TrEMBL record:
The chain holds residues 125 to 381 of 381 of the full protein. This is histidine kinase. Its main location: membrane. It catalyses: ATP + protein L-histidine = ADP + protein N-phospho-L-histidine. Keywords: Kinase, Membrane, Phosphoprotein, Transferase, Transmembrane, Transmembrane helix, Two-component regulatory system. The keyword Kinase applies.
Length: 257
């Protein structure tokens, strides 16, 4: 029963109940907002020390000290694995805290961001002999959340590798127009049937359920992608590629603020 209905019907018990219910919802929502803000700030604070630890542990892995025995090398490898897990967790926390509003509008350089995503996904691509190609583009500045823009490109390229054939290719290009940039992520995979091109962005939708499940996907990747694109004032569509495979086209506002 809403407060309005309770007042309208002049039922004192309901009025009191609806007032206390409203107060409770307000308190819960305030508490949730502060928790979200706290999560975001805490995750930001964790980022730098974690990155430093990871870099140091990677260095040890590449150039182990001659005095290190096998046990120490093993221990350091385990530490590296755990810091990687922690970094992923921190990234997820940051993404969650930024999903409602983009509080920190960073200037994000697109070409470098694409490079970073392709480098992070190259081990996955190598396993399936898929080549990752980046078409040369000059400097393109986006305004928004570097964390979310990374996730947007990561999810698209990861899918382009995942739903590709062995020995296939993924090509990422960006074309700057007046005050927008169009990013294309093209693959040589199975393609997406015409009828599914809109539903594909809905939560838990998968074209080939058994195949997607085998990869451990749950069908939320593209939902998140579309939400991030919208948060940045852009659009996303599946473009015709003519030669099979899938092409995702993302259009985002660009240029210095
Ligand atoms: P997930 O990959 O976890 O299942 P997504 O939301 O990322 O979830 O993708 C939804 C579905 O869209 C996938 O299950 C897959 O069927 C299809 N899909 C996504 N990207 C591609 C692609 N590049 N090529 C072919 N199918 C794709």
């Amino acid at each position: 029963l809403t407060q309005y209905q309770a007042e309208e019907q002049q039922i004192p018990e309901f009025q009191a109940l609806s007032h206390s219910f409203e107060a409770m919802v307000r308190r819960l929502s305030d508490a949730f907002s502060s928790l979200q803000e706290f999560n975001g700030n805490a995750a930001h604070e964790f980022r730098t020390p974690l990155a430093m630890m990871q870099a140091q542990l990677e260095l040890y892995e590449e150039m182990p000290h001659p005095d290190m025995d096998a046990e120490t090398v093993e221990l350091l490898a385990m530490l590296k694995e755990q810091t990687e897990r922690l970094s992923k967790l921190v990234k997820t926390l940051l993404e969650m805290s930024e999903m409602n509003t983009i509080e920190r509008a960073d200037a994000v350089e697109l070409t470098a961001l694409i490079e970073e995503v392709l480098a992070d996904l190259s081990p996955m691509a190598e396993k399936r002999q898929i080549s990752l190609l980046q078409e040369a583009t000059g400097e393109v500045l986006l305004q928004g959340s570097d964390i979310l823009l990374y996730r947007l490109l990561f999810n698209l390229v990861e899918n382009a590798i995942r739903y590709n054939k062995e020995g296939g290719a993924v090509r990422v290009s960006a074309e700057e127009r007046a005050d927008t940039v169009e990013i294309l992520v093209q693959d040589t995979g199975s393609g997406i049937p015409e009828a599914d091109r809109e539903t594909i962005f809905q939560p838990f939708f998968r074209v080939d359920k058994s195949r997607s499940r085998a990869y451990g996907g749950v069908g939320l990747g593209l939902t998140l992608v579309r939400k991030i694109v919208e948060l940045h004032g852009g659009t996303i569509r599946i473009a015709e590629s003519g030669e099979g495979g899938t092409t995702f086209a993302v259009c985002l506002p660009c240029g210095a603020a």
